[in-house]
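Minutes, project check-in
Item: structure for the 120-residue chain
Input as provided by the requester:
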Amino acid sequence: MRFNDVIDKTFKRGLKKYKKLEGKGGNSTEYPDMIKKWDAETKFALGYMELVAAKSKEELGFPLDLLTRSANEGFWLAQYMLGNCYKEGHGVKKDENLARQWWEKAAAQGLDDAKEKLST
């Protein structure tokens, strides 16, 4: 499976779960209490959305926290994205070893993009 083939559907599904849980959107000051209810897919969807929307390095902490929580719960898309962040130093200290560790976890779940990253 490929990242681009599943990201839109996964993002929409996670966002739908978030809206269902909360009844409406929230703001980032409400998230800490709300996170406890979210599954890994929902954490990924919101983390990914906020990561893409971040306009400065200072805005990357919260989305990276959500992606890390999701990845630690075994969600392969979050594992892949964290690998990319560590490879590029996007909001985190650049770390090739951590990048590879996250890609290995995503690859073990069948993500072809992660397998390709590991082969280079």
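Outcome recorded: The mean pLDDT is 84.
No further action items on this chain.
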